[in-house]
Every structure is written in structure tokens, then in C-alpha cells.
Design a protein that fits this description.
CATH architecture of the largest domain: 2-Layer Sandwich
Structural class: alpha+beta
Strand content: 5-15%
CATH class of the largest domain: Alpha Beta
CATH topology of the largest domain: Nucleotidyltransferase, domain 5
Shape: elongated
CATH superfamily of the largest domain: Ribonuclease H-like superfamily/Ribonuclease H
Largest sheet: 3 strands, antiparallel
Number of domains: 2
Radius of gyration: 22 Å
Number of strands: 9
Mean pLDDT: 78
Number of helices: 9
Helix content: 40-55%
Order of helices and strands: HHEEEHHHEEHEHEEEHH
Length: 258
């Protein structure tokens, strides 16, 4: 397995074959009109022509790799460094022996593509966001599903939006005694709380230890990047979410407890 992985990074042909197998796993479709009436375009290697719209395309068309001067195996190696080894962009530029600017642009495309696919972007606003101290809401299901959501503030209205979007109405929510969480009473959620102010951290199955655990992971994970811009925070959180969700067995799709 390791030999096959390393071969992807040193051989452009292997990387191209992997892209072809993954992208067209369910059959080749036109990226312009979604037609399945596709023929090989003999003038170019690994190119296709759509019989419906008569446009030509290749395996990279419509992806972040399209028209890139960087070899595909370097793209995959960068994705491996960022997502699996969690290496910072400056260190990745040294590993790839390319300028920081070039690697930064490529890394941003990769992270943005992950972020857009997973749809985890939050709205921005004032208050703590403007003070360069954005809050991050962490929701964790007892079976393991987790969400990291950058938040403009922690007011009741914001809590209401986040919970309504990410938590099933029939779920039971476990929270601490933070004042803004009282909004959950009006939303109809079943909820239990622990009072950290009196050093109550667990009462039977009632606790927020799962969220505390993720917070302890999140802080050093972000520290490696030595400061993340507010504008890029949601992108990095999407990368962390993908990294953690693909490193363990999948569970249900939505979080149901905090």
C-alpha cells in the first residue's frame, strides 16, 4: 500500500490514472452538459468529445488541476502533506522545492475545493470576528459525527441559527450553563446541562466532554499554521473536518448533540 502511495507522488502517469479512475468511477460524463454520449478524441491523449454538445474535454477539465503548470503528482503530494500529515504551507513549499507563493495558491485551491464540497461556511459579522478573536462552535454527536463552525458571536440568535441548521429537531442536546443556551428552551429541543461554574463536569451521561476533547485538538492543530486569517478560518476548519472524518469509520450525516 505504501509503495503504491509513493508511486503516485513520483510518477505523473500513476497520478493521472488515479484521477481518471476516481473522477469517472461511474462512467464518463460531459462536464458541460452532463451527457453520457462520449467518444474518445483521437487527436489528443486521454481526451474526449461529447456527441451532444460537441465540446472536447479531458480528465482535468473543470477541476482545480485544469490549465495548471504544476504536475498532477505534485498536486496529490501537496494534498497529502496538508490533509494527512498536516504540514504547514511554508514547510510544504520546502518539501516541494517551490516558492511559497506558488504553494500557497495551490494549497488555497485545494482547501477551498474541500470547503465548497463540504458546505460548512458560516456567515460573517462584527463583534468578536472584528476583534480577530472569532468563536468556533463545536458540535459532536455521541456516535462521533462532529462539526466545527466559525461564528460571528455567541449571542442567542446566532446559537439558534447554528443549532437549527446542524441539529435534528428530535435530538437531545447536552450543554453547559452558558447563558445564550437558554434559547434552546424556546426551540423545543430536549436538553440537559452541567454547571461548570460549580465544578460540575459530568452527571451520569450528561456532559460536554466530547466537545472539550475536540477543542483540545483544534487549538494545537491551528497553532501549526501560526495564525489563520479570519477570511480563511472556515477553509481550514473544512480541512480539519475532512481529515478527521476520513480517518475513522463513517457514522450518520448530521450532528445531534453538543
Amino acid at each position: 500500500m505504501l509503495a503504491e502511495l509513493l508511486n503516485l507522488f513520483v510518477c505523473e502517469a500513476s497520478a493521472a490514472r488515479l484521477l481518471r479512475e476516481v473522477r469517472w468511477a461511474e462512467g464518463i460524463r460531459c462536464p458541460y452538459c452532463s451527457s453520457e454520449a462520449i467518444i474518445r478524441w483521437a487527436w489528443y491523449r486521454h481526451a474526449y468529445r461529447c456527441k451532444a454538445c460537441r465540446r472536447t474535454f479531458n480528465d482535468k477539465t473543470g477541476t482545480i488541476f485544469s490549465y495548471s503548470r504544476i504536475p498532477l503528482n505534485e498536486w496529490l503530494f501537496l494534498r497529502y502533506l496538508l490533509g494527512c500529515l498536516h504540514i504547514s504551507i511554508p514547510k510544504a513549499s520546502r518539501e516541494l522545492e517551490r516558492s511559497y507563493e506558488a504553494v500557497y495558491r495551490s494549497a488555497r485551491k485545494i482547501i477551498y475545493a474541500i470547503h465548497r464540497f463540504r458546505g460548512l461556511k458560516a456567515e460573517r459579522g462584527r463583534r468578536s470576528w472584528g476583534k480577530d478573536m472569532p468563536r468556533i462552535m463545536i458540535l459532536v454527536e455521541r456516535r462521533g459525527v462532529e462539526r466545527y463552525i466559525p461564528s460571528t458571536d455567541v449571542e442567542k440568535r446566532t446559537i439558534e441559527k447554528i443549532v437549527s441548521r446542524h441539529v435534528e429537531p428530535v435530538s437531545r442536546i447536552y450543554i453547559d450553563s452558558f447563558t445564550s443556551y437558554t434559547i434552546l428552551q424556546t426551540l423545543g429541543f430536549k436538553h440537559e446541562r452541567v454547571n461548570h461554574s460549580i465544578r460540575e463536569y459530568a452527571r451520569g451521561n450528561i456532559h460536554t466532554n466530547n466537545c472539550e476533547d475536540r477543542a483540545s485538538i483544534l487549538k494545537p492543530w491551528l497553532a501549526i499554521h501560526r495564525g489563520v486569517s479570519e477570511d480563511n478560518l472556515d477553509l481550514y476548519l473544512s480541512l480539519l473536518h475532512l481529515q478527521r472524518s476520513t480517518s475513522k469509520p463513517k457514522t450518520s450525516k448530521r450532528s445531534s448533540s453538543q
